[in-house]
């Protein structure tokens, strides 16, 4: 049985999810962990861009 799942893309989707979720919770995390959380997740919105790139890749991959 052939699997059409590209596991590296699935891993990137997981990373994008973590980045977006942590970006939304960065203020709560900074109350507990201080500036470290802010520094780590201030650019977490890049996960949205990553989702768009993955979507474009999947659209291209499916049309092949």
Secondary-structure map:
Elements: H1 7-24, H2 26-33, H3 35-41, H4 46-63
Helix pairs in contact: 1-4, 2-3
Gyration radius over CA: 15 Å
The chain-level mean pLDDT equals 87
Structural class category: mainly alpha
DSSP helix fraction: over 70%
| Number of helical elements | 4
Descriptors for this entry?
80% helix; elongated; mainly alpha; 64 residues
Question: How would you describe this protein?
Answer:
- The longest helix is centred in the first third of the chain and has 18 residues, at 7-24.
- The protein has four helices and no strands.
- With 64 residues, the protein is mainly α.
- Helix 1 (7-24) runs antiparallel to helix 4 and helix 2 (26-33) runs antiparallel to helix 3.
- The chain has helices spanning 7-24, 26-33, 35-41, 46-63.
- It has one domain (16-63).
Give me a quick take on this structure.
The protein is mainly alpha-helical. It is built from 4 helices and no strands.
């Amino acid at each position: 049985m052939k699997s059409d799942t590209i596991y590296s893309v699935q891993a990137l989707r997981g990373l994008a999810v973590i980045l977006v979720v942590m970006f939304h919770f960065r203020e709560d995390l900074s109350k507990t962990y201080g500036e470290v959380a802010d520094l780590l997740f201030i650019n977490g919105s890049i996960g949205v861009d990553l989702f768009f790139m993955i979507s474009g890749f999947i659209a291209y991959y499916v049309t092949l």
